[in-house]
Amino acid sequence: MSDTIERIECLIIGSGPAGYTAAIYAARADLKPVVYTGLEMGGQLTTTTEVDNYPGYPEGVDGTKMMEDFKKQAERFGTDVRFGSVTKVELSDQLGGIHKVEVDGNKKIEAETLIIATGASASYLGLESEQRLRGGGVSACATCDGFFYKGQDIIVVGAGDTAAEEATYLAKICSKVTMLVRRDEMRASKAMQKRVMNTKNIEVLFNTEIDEVLGEKKAFGDEVVVGVRVINNQSKEKRVIDVTGVFIAIGHKPNTDLFVGQLDMDETKYLKTKGKSSKTNLPGVFACGDVQDHEYRQAVTAAGSGCTAALDAERYLTSLNE
Ligand code: NDP
């Protein structure tokens, strides 16, 4: 354990659009921000391919490239971007209090303000074939990747509001959407279920799960999805459905384990923020991006809330000196 304790004015945890946007604004306000990136540097966007819906990129942009640009822009104004994961926090409930943070199990930091941008992670089924084909036809984001399946047949796995919303969204782009529901009923709200059932090119298969995602190597060696083998969990009957895309929509998990018992969360463990602000229940602690937003979850909305968090942190520090 290292004994030296570093004092930081504005510590940002997370390196997705929210974290880097907070860093750009905090650096320009001379808060000398330090970003700890976490293990997945650049966040969820680095797991997707092309981003076509972020304003300012008329031709689209590779997700990883876009996050490198965010990082460069934050660094241009003096942000100190460090690879590492926060492993423990001890947050103060006092106005002007110091938040104690531990990085990678040894480095100790005292932060005057803390901006939490740790995001959320899409849940996956956990099948080996599913993991192998991520980026080759398996996706967890219809808004990001749906366009690539124009006129094609695809699968949506899940039965909640997200799955229902993604299935109806994809039905407008794709030729046919087959929705796999593991029980004999859907969890989605009645209104969403009705929308699914009223969409002609969506077929819902109940009591059905994926047994294996089937891939085929293409000329350049990349493996892409060519179908799924599904199993009816009642009759145990298996069959193959030919599809080129598999969208997993079985929920997201916010990355908030570090803050349990210290910050207010909703019943699904998303951080609670006050009104339109990024303020949590503790002074000097702010949250932005997907870690506090289970509804919109877009890069551009996350970036917007990152800006809000930096402005809130700046105003908080200014108010302490008044
Ligand atoms: P949910 O937790 O509501 O639903 C997850 C779904 O995935 C469930 O139907 C679940 O099945 C299924 N599932 C979980 N694990 C597996 C698995 N291993 N194999 C197959 N299926 C699986 O998550 P959502 O992301 O849909 O929604 C999260 C929250 O956000 C909800 O409160 C929702 O209402 C809200 N939301 C609201 C929207 C809106 O109002 N427009 C849009 C999107 C989300 P089972 O039912 O069997 O457990």
Which key terms come to mind for this protein?
5-stranded parallel β-sheet, elongated, 322 residues, 2 domains, 19 strands, alpha/beta, binds NADPH dihydro-nicotinamide-adenine-dinucleotide phosphate, FAD/NAD(P)-binding domain, 7 helices, 7-stranded mixed β-sheet
What is the helical fraction, as a range of percent? 10-25%
Gap between N and C termini: 37 Å
- Based on helices, strands and strand pairing, what is the structural class? alpha/beta
How much is the average pLDDT?
95
| Element-level helix/strand string | EHEEEHEEEEEHEHEHEHEEEEEEEH
Major sheet characteristics: 7 strands, mixed
Look at the structure and give the CATH class of the largest domain: Alpha Beta
Judging from the principal axes of the Cα atoms, what is the shape?
elongated
Name the ligand types: NADPH dihydro-nicotinamide-adenine-dinucleotide phosphate
- At CATH level 3, the topology of the largest domain is FAD/NAD(P)-binding domain
Task: Estimate the strand proportion.
Answer: 25-35%
- The low-confidence runs, each spanning 5 or more residues with pLDDT under 50, are none
Radius of gyration: 22 Å
Q: How many β-strand runs?
A: 19
**In DSSP terms, counting alpha (H) and pi (I) runs of 4 or more, how many helices?**
7
